[in-house]
Every structure is written in C-alpha cells, then in structure tokens.
Amino acid sequence: MWNYEKRLQYPINITQTNPQMAQVIISQFGGPDGELAASMRYLSQRYTMPYREVMGILTDIGTEELAHG
Q: Which of 4, 22, 31, 35 could crosslink 27 through cysteines, CB 3.0-4.6 Å?
C-alpha cells in the first residue's frame, strides 16, 4: 500500500507569467524534438530489436529520457 502526496520537489513562487517562454518549454518536452518524443521513439524501437541486450539498452535510454522531462 502507498500514500500519494501531491507536492513539488522544490517550492516555487510564480510572480508573473510568460506565455512565450511557456511555449518554448512545452515544445522542448512534447514537440517533435522534445524529450517525450525521443523517449517514445526509443521505447517503440525496442520491440523490433532481435537481441535482448539491445532491447534492454533501449528500455534504459527511453526511461532515462522520460526522467529528463
């Protein structure tokens, strides 16, 4: 059993918004060249690998890319 606590790792205090910067940050995470896209490419390619060692490496890289986001 586990307990979910919704809290940030580091406290933040946003004093003013910047929509342009938010757009850049979101595109880096979920855009075509972002972390999420790279992760999905690695994790989907692992299913076509003939060697289990390479499959494991792609899994490790894909999950590491998810950790960057």
A: 31
Q: How confident is the model at residue 25 (pLDDT cuts 50, 70, 90)?
A: confident
Mean predicted confidence (pLDDT) in 8-26:
86
pLDDT of residue 35: 81
**Distance between CA 24 and CA 30 in Å, rounded?**
10
Three-class DSSP labels, 4-60 = CCCCCCCCCCCCCCCHHHHHHHHHHHHCCCCHHHHHHHHHHHHHHCCCHHHHHHHHH
Q: Could you give the angle at the alpha carbon of 6 between the alpha carbons of 65 and 3, nearest 5°?
A: 100
What is the C-alpha end-to-end distance of the chain, expressed in Å? 27
Interval 27-58: pLDDT, tens? 777 777 778 888 888 899 998 888 888 899 99
